[in-house]
UniProtKB/TrEMBL annotation:
Residues 28-324 form the Amidohydrolase-related domain. InterPro entries: ACMSD, Amidohydro-rel. GO terms for cellular component: cytoplasm. The lineage of its organism: Bacteria, Pseudomonadati, Bacteroidota, Flavobacteriia, Flavobacteriales. GO terms for biological process: secondary metabolic process. GO terms for molecular function: carboxy-lyase activity; hydrolase activity. It comes from Halomarinibacterium sedimenti. Transmembrane segments: none annotated. Signal peptide: none annotated. This is Amidohydrolase. CDD domains: metallo-dependent_hydrolases (cd01292).
Length: 335
């Protein structure tokens, strides 16, 4: 076989795979992070939820050692450094046709990622509820400069505080005033958070969706979504969404790093309760770029979802929540 003929055969063999990537319908990721790799060791493994993972169990007399917990056959690995994290994450967004990604992290890193992406994929998110808050004036300036599209991730639970704590009222009021969405963390933190360095203030009890009730009553025009759907308190989340029509959820992190059976049980419960139009896709990609593909796979393979429900989760619900124009939606679909 000549080299020319070999090349032609290879090209035709690859065409179906290239076409599959190009023809994938658009996705909106409502929960992505642009972090620095100085927070965890490079190459740290993580086990996807479809590999029968177990929650770590430690003797309280022993040191916390997660290396014993990563026993899955096909783990994914954290990036090498900041540049590797950025480049691999942006490559994954392109690979899976993710047209918009709510990206939270240090403002300078999010801005760098946006410039590197070169388009309009990165929706800049700015957090509050951290140990050091940005002032209302600073947030207004960031919004005016196009560096604040979503107020989130809201880390109030990691401070051990209720969402209706008076110290946060000005932030919810600002989001309502600027008409920008809020994404708040309610749910599990890292495994063994009670012993995890830096998480001394985290309280599982502050993850109840019911704690949002007074915030939503006070700000009826606020667009707000609960990250991680308040897991594992799904029944509370259903009750809150039933009562408050401006409340959405994302399914981030739980869709790839939690036991798949647990995630599917929660997702199906929300679908069966009639909330297929208020569930949004998110990856919660932090340090593991391959988490994006794993999160997408969990929806692709969900046996109880119809094709229409998958499209709602992947794109349509977030497009409605973000109030995308017909022109923006058409552009996302290559029209």
């Amino acid at each position: 076989m000549t080299s020319k003929m070999y090349f032609i055969i290879c090209v035709f063999w690859l065409i179906p795979f290239c076409a599959g990537a190009q023809n994938r319908l658009p996705i909106i990721d409502m929960h992505l992070h642009a972090f620095s790799m100085d927070e965890i060791p490079s190459g740290t493994p993580a086990c996807p939820g479809d590999q029968n993972i177990l929650v770590p169990t430690f003797d309280p007399a022993e040191e916390l050692d997660f290396s014993k917990s990563f026993k899955c056959s096909n783990p994914i690995f954290a990036a090498k450094d900041d540049l590797d994290l950025r480049n691999k994450t942006l490559a994954a967004l392109k690979k899976y046709n993710i047209r918009r990604a709510m990206t939270e992290g240090p403002v300078e890193i999010v801005t760098d990622w946006s410039k590197a992406e070169g388009g309009d994929v990165i929706l800049p998110g700015v957090a509050f509820g951290k140990r050091k808050e940005k002032s209302i004036e600073e947030l207004k300036r960031l919004h005016a400069n196009g560096q604040l599209a979503v107020l989130g991730e809201v880390y109030i639970q990691y401070r051990g505080h209720r969402p209706d704590n008076p110290r946060y009222e000005a932030y919810f009021a600002l989001a309502e005033e600027l008409d920008i969405p809020v994404g708040i963390h309610l749910g599990e933190g890292p495994p063994a958070a009670a012993r995890f360095p830096g998480y001394e203030e985290y309280r599982a009890s502050m993850g109840s969706p019911f704690l949002l009730e007074d915030v939503l009553r006070k700000h009826p025009k606020l667009r707000i979504y609960v990250m991680h759907y308040g897991s594992p308190l799904v029944d509370e989340m259903i009750s809150m969404m039933f009562t408050h029509t401006n409340l959405y959820v994302d399914i981030s992190c739980n869709n790839w790093s939690f036991p798949r059976a647990q995630f599917y049980d929660a997702l199906k419960k929300m679908i069966d309760a009639g909330f297929e139009k208020r569930i949004m896709f998110g990856s919660d990609q932090m340090y593991w770029p391959d988490a994006i593909g794993e999160a997408i796979k969990s929806i692709d393979e969900a046996p109880f979802l119809t094709d229409e429900q998958k499209r709602d989760i992947f794109y349509n619900n977030a497009a409605r929540f973000l109030r995308l124009s017909e022109e923006e939606i058409a552009k996302d679909h290559g029209q």
